[in-house]
Write a structure and sequence with these properties.
By secondary structure, the protein is an alpha/beta fold. The protein contains nine helices and 13 strands. The chain is 35% helix and 23% strand.
């Protein structure tokens, strides 16, 4: 079950490791990063999709491909703050569902967008939901750039952490990687961005810990398909190029 929802894609121009990365073309695709995120979102069941940006160059590219966009402040510290500004610009009702699709994702299956929005449609007691997937190796689980998530049998998040703490084993053997795809109720998002940052959030550099530390429940579900590729470094770009090549080969051979 997926109710009506809006997708907002935060896409800022500045980036320390990859300057202007929103407009970097993914090799082998002929499309910049922000366009990949937008195409995934528009292939979902979302009723409307907006790019939230702080730079005219990104806005001009959006206009050129027919993507709706909203200009936002250059002072935002996070993509979530940027999404919240657009929620207010659109005057969304407190119960409306908003999905935050990160603007640096390549190959994100639109089914995952529908899945995370659908959680809030069937779980009225939750105001925030996200997804995860099993780690494929212990090395990936040990990588501090991969966020680990644990949750109970009801789907309620117990913890998010960059640290790998091996348990007694199980299925999956190395635990779950958090996928940075979120659904919120608009009213909760407005509250969330006004909450003070918690100590664990600052220590781990994980924004979602603010919700847990403030007593709000977060629903976690295993993704129905493998997630896309987040782009933060030149190495990520190389991996995305390999993915694009494999996709081109698959489509050619069909």
């Amino acid at each position: 079950m997926t109710s009506s929802f809006t997708v907002i894609i935060p896409s800022r121009y500045g980036s320390t490791r990859l300057p202007a990365k929103a407009l970097i073309e993914i090799p082998g695709t002929g499309k910049p990063l922000v366009q990949h995120a937008w195409e995934s979102a528009t292939a979902s069941a979302a009723q409307q999709v907006f790019v939230a940006t702080d730079h005219q160059s990104i806005a001009e590219h959006c206009a050129g491909i027919g993507a709706s966009f909203q200009m936002t402040s250059i002072r935002h510290q996070s993509g979530t703050d940027r999404v919240a500004e657009v929620v207010d610009q659109l005057r969304l009702g407190d119960d409306e569902v908003v999905v935050n699709v990160q603007g640096d994702e390549v190959g994100l299956p639109p089914e995952l967008i529908d899945q995370v929005a659908g959680i809030l449609a069937r779980e009225p007691e939750y105001s925030m939901a996200t997804l995860c997937e099993p780690f494929e190796s212990e090395a990936a689980a040990q990588d501090t750039s991969n966020v680990k998530v644990s949750f109970d049998a009801t789907g309620r998040a117990l913890s998010f952490s960059r640290a790998y703490r091996p348990g007694p084993g199980g299925d999956p053997p190395w635990g779950y990687r958090h996928i940075g795809l979120y659904a919120y109720r608009a009213g909760f998002l407005r509250k969330f961005t006004r909450m003070p940052q918690s100590h664990s959030e600052l220590r781990e550099r994980l924004e979602q810990l603010r919700a847990l530390d403030s007593g709000y429940a977060v629903y976690v579900e295993v993704a129905c398909r493998p997630a896309g590729h987040g782009i933060d470094t030149p190495a990520d770009l190389e991996r995305a190029a390999t993915w694009a090549l494999s996709m081109h080969t698959t489509l050619r051979d069909k």
